[in-house]
Amino acid sequence: MTRAQLNDLRIKEMYGKRKIKKVDSHQGNFLTLSKTVTLSFRDFGAIDGDIIGIYHNDILIVKRATLNQHYQSFPIHLQKGNNKIEILAINQGSLGANTAQYKLVNSSGFKIASQYWFLATGAKAIFNVTKN
Questions:
Q1: What is the CA angle 66-103-21, rounded to 5?
Q2: I need a labelling partner for 35 at 20 to 30 A (CA). Which of 19, 24, 94, 131 fits?
Q3: Strands 25-32, 124-131: pairing kind
């Protein structure tokens, strides 16, 4: 077996039998002066077909994005005041949980937030960005 196959087998043993509860993950509240932020995301675990959707203020802006090992990025144009950004786990891939990493940066490239998650199908990572 290759190293990648052994790693996949190890992950299946660790997470494949575990039932993941559907619980939303609140990531926090953040302030910025930027007109836009860029949301970047990738699969930090084994590449197993994890799919996400992205909402901005309850409006779907990315219907389906399949996660891979490289960051995919989407700009989000902020409204003045509170902006709710939600990342929905559409599925859990073939290895148990939806394992993603995101980072959110402002227009100057300053990292506002960064996090990993293990989400069940239908759960969301939610954070609020307030534009002053």
A1: 60
A2: 24
A3: parallel
Give the integer Cα–Cα distance in Å for 61 and 58: 9
Confidence (pTM): 0.83
Are the C-beta atoms of 10 and 45 separated by less than 8 Å? no
Extract the tokens encoding 2. Answer: 């290759």
Residue 1: helix, strand or coil by DSSP?
A: coil
Instruction: Give 62-112 pLDDT, tens digit per residue.
Output: 999 999 999 999 999 999 999 999 999 999 888 778 888 999 999 999 999
Residues 6+ apart with CB under 8 A from 74: 38, 39, 40, 54, 61, 62
Residue type, 105: V
**Selected residue with higher pLDDT from 28 and 15:** 28
